[in-house]
Amino acid sequence: MRLIHTSDWHLGRFLHGVDLLEHQAAYLDHLVDLVRDERPAAVLVCGDVYDRAVPPVGAVQLLEESLIRLAEATQVIVISGNHDSATRLGFGSKLMRPEIKLFTRLSQVGQAVTVPDPDGGPGALVYPVPFLDVYAAAEGFSSQENSVARSHEAVFAAAAKRIRADLARRGLAAPPAPAGHAQLGSDRPAVVAMAHALVVGGEPSESERDLTVGGIATVPAGVFELIDYVALGHLHGPQRIAAAESQLIRYSGSPLAFSFSEARQVKSTAMVRLEPGGPRTELIPAPVPRPMAQVEGTLAELESRRFDPVAQNWLMVTVTDQSRPDNMTGRIARRFPHALVTRHLRAGPAGTAATGRVTAASDPLQVVADFLEYAGGTPATDAEQQEIRKALEAVGRARGEL
To answer: What homologous superfamily does CATH list for 2-285?
Structure first.
């Protein structure tokens, strides 16, 4: 039995000013083709469908069209992520066609989606867990008899308790096997959980939003006992989290790179095979709209033929001349038409300029002169210092200090 696991579409996102919606649409075309070719039993979308709580109209239309196309071929299960507005994403969920299931509310935690096996096997029980806001989830899970702490670990433990209770009602919560969870067998449905969280052992990228301000944002993998496959969203790099031998905890990763820290990641979609010996995954490469790279050198070096192979990439360009070259930005734009970030960082030991700590007692003239040396690579000239002095005196007179 096969499932497709994807997440972190971030529809409506920009990459350093570049609108990615066209490229996100290309990925969703690829996903629809993959589903039509492979005919999985379900598609699991693990949160951050949108990039922000109030998505642009084009992103909403793209999601609607894509879900309809996917639902024509299989069942689609979607949970909300920390970038999504759970209310907006979940609006109209009861009006959706039965093949599309949206899980955005705390009250839905512990409810299973039964996914039949097209090949006649026992199928799977999928437990979607939408993003759990720590404060709302702690209050919602607490009762007079049991208070849930305001931490990610505590609220996920409470969510897992609801899942185990539902498994017990179905007669499937057997005592944990030596590996730490029930074994996937030929007469037992696979147990799958969907979540949007930072699980201990995951490697983050620069483009993910923190899940909490202060406190502990991570969730230990141990809360997912009795679950064969844990489909995760939030981290943008595809990766597997260490788990028991026949259990698999995986991030599918985002289908596009959203920061230069992801330039070396191979973006993909996870094809999950639920087999008697345990889940297995195959990563299907996602289409790449334009490769990303970081390059650096003097402006003369960057303008040489050496950098021809990456001239059409999305680039972060670092110019290392000792002083900032004239018309640096314009020359880089002509050389690399898709450069997204251009910066000047001169080569050599750090701290060449005298950039000591600035305090209320610091001489303003020296502070400005130090900044000019730091930014331009050479000390301020006598003429520049004279202009700085005039400007500071004009400010002092305007403030009545002189």
So the answer is: Metallo-dependent phosphatases (3.60.21.10)
